[in-house]
Write a structure and sequence with these properties.
The protein is an alpha/beta fold. The chain has 17 helices and ten strands. The strands form two sheets. The protein has a five-stranded mixed β-sheet with strand order 2-1-3-10-4, sandwiched between helices. The chain has a five-stranded mixed β-sheet with strand order 7-6-8-5-9, with helices on both faces. Helix 6 links the parallel strand 6 and strand 7. Helix 2 crosses helix 11.
Length: 337
């Protein structure tokens, strides 16, 4: 009998190896531009829930100050995949770089153009920001792109303002409270934190809801996604599928649990000292998260339209949007579930 059990065990091991699950021993380095931002919550929650490991892949999350720095890590080879905003794939396509998103977790970007509490008396509109210092997560990040778009849309020369990198979390809140900058592009929970402290906080533009996003962009505008070089995706289909499965499972979990339950699962350092405020911010953010993980082709077109307005380079380039994203892995994840 023991010999038979040994043979059965050997067969079971062989089946596991041949099924492709053995790749779980490899590690995917995932670069993220500001883990405390609720815009990236599905990425961090998937880790906290153990969804990556359940899907059969080890993921090492590497944190950066902003999306542009996370992107540099992947372009430089020190990370494999970016958890960041889809618009980078469109912007880089104009430069001949072939990057592709494979699962989208934000239906809209969640950006808010907020006036510093120390400057609310003098800044009443976007036009008042000419020649002022404005904070973004990091120069060249999606917050920077959005700022330039809003400025141009309101007749302000983007070159007239000083762009200051302030991060997305506590550093951004501190810069705003100290008045070091006149305004900033912020995301939750930072926006809700400031609103909780300053009842007269001025928000000049807001894309945290579908209604406001439609008003700003004329359509839904995909935000956070997992993306990387197209050739890396082609070379690592199992890892890509596993990461997609993990994010899709996490999105389903998010939409079947309360903000309180979600906050309970998140790492304490990301929730911060005021859990009630974090939960309040999460309630504002929940509509932002995708239910499917799929890219809406119209959303990708909206990104291209925005960049074509603010970037002459993108406007001139003949970008094939179908190469900037794929829904193949999300569709496979749906069938698997």
């Amino acid at each position: 009998m023991p010999a038979m059990f040994q043979r059965l065990a050997a067969v079971a091991i062989a089946l596991v190896l041949s099924s492709g699950l053995a790749f779980a021993q490899s590690t995917v380095k995932l670069a993220i531009g500001g883990a405390s931002c609720l815009c990236y919550l599905p990425t961090m929650l998937a880790d906290a829930l153990g969804e990556y490991k359940k899907a059969g892949v080890n993921v090492e999350v590497i944190q950066f100050k902003g999306g542009s720095e996370a992107l540099k890590a992947v372009m430089g080879g020190s990370a494999d995949v970016v958890s960041g905003y889809f618009d980078h794939t469109v912007n880089l396509a104009a430069k001949g770089q072939n990057l592709q998103s494979f699962v989208v977790y934000d239906r809209f970007p969640g950006f808010a153009l907020v006036v510093s509490p120390k400057h609310t008396a003098t800044i009443k509109s976007v036009k008042d920001l000419a020649n002022k210092k404005i904070g973004v997560s990091a120069p060249g990040s999606s917050t920077d792109f959005f700022l330039k778009y809003i400025l141009k849309k309101n007749g302000v020369d983007p070159n007239s303002v000083g762009i200051i990198g302030v991060g997305l979390g506590a550093t951004a809140v501190a810069s705003m409270e100290q008045g070091e900058i006149e305004a900033a592009i912020m995301l939750d929970p930072a926006v809700t934190i400031l609103q909780g402290k300053y009842k007269d906080l001025a928000i000049l533009s807001d894309t945290r809801s579908q209604k406001d996003t439609l008003a700003v962009f004329g359509g839904e505008y995909p935000g956070g996604a997992l993306y990387t070089k197209a050739d890396w995706i082609a070379a690592h289909p199992k890892e890509v599928q596993a990461m997609t499965n993990a994010i899709v499972a996490t999105l389903k979990w998010i939409h079947s649990h309360t903000p309180e339950q979600i906050a309970d699962k998140m790492p304490a350092e990301l929730v911060g000292k005021d859990k009630a405020l974090y939960i309040a911010a999460l309630k504002n953010t929940l509509p932002m998260y995708s239910e499917t993980g799929k890219m809406d082709p119209k959303g990708a077109e909206a990104v291209l339209a925005v960049f074509s307005q603010s970037s002459p380079e993108v406007a001139k380039a003949k970008i094939d949007l179908s190469k900037t994203y794929t829904n193949k892995y999300v569709e496979a994840a749906g069938k698997g579930m």
